[in-house]
């Protein structure tokens, strides 16, 4: 079984770094934790930059970022 973590973001700059540190730490000892998927709902703050920095610096788990052009709301974003 593989584990994927899906995070929906909309202007979550104040939470982004702590969230990523916590998720990465949580996945360190779980081999099934394969990916973290960030779906960004057209953020206007620096949260997307923070997530992109983590995606470049971390090899495992893989961090995937999906950028939406507008705020679609939680339900649509989580299904993307």
Structural account:
With 80 residues, the chain is of the alpha/beta class. The protein has helices at residues 13-27, 47-57, 74-79, and strands at residues 3-9, 33-41, 62-68. It is built from 3 helices and 3 strands. β1 (3-9), α1 (13-27) and β2 (33-41) form a beta-alpha-beta unit. The longest helix is centred in the first third of the chain and has 15 residues, at 13-27. The protein is globular and about 35 Å long.
Give the topology:
Elements: E1 3-9, H1 13-27, E2 33-41, H2 47-57, E3 62-68, H3 74-79
Parallel strand pairs: 1-2, 2-3
SS summary, helix count: 3
| Rounded mean pLDDT score | 94
Largest beta-sheet characterization? 3 strands, parallel
Tell me what portion of residues adopts beta-strand conformation: 25-35%
Structural class: alpha/beta
Q: Unreliable stretches, pLDDT < 50, 5 or more residues?
A: none
Pick out its properties.
80 residues, alpha/beta, three-stranded parallel sheet, 3 helices, 29% strand, globular
Briefly say what this structure is.
The chain has 80 residues and is α/β, with parallel strands linked by helices. 40% of the residues lie in helices and 29% in strands. The protein has helices at residues 13-27, 47-57, 74-79, and strands at 3-9, 33-41, 62-68.
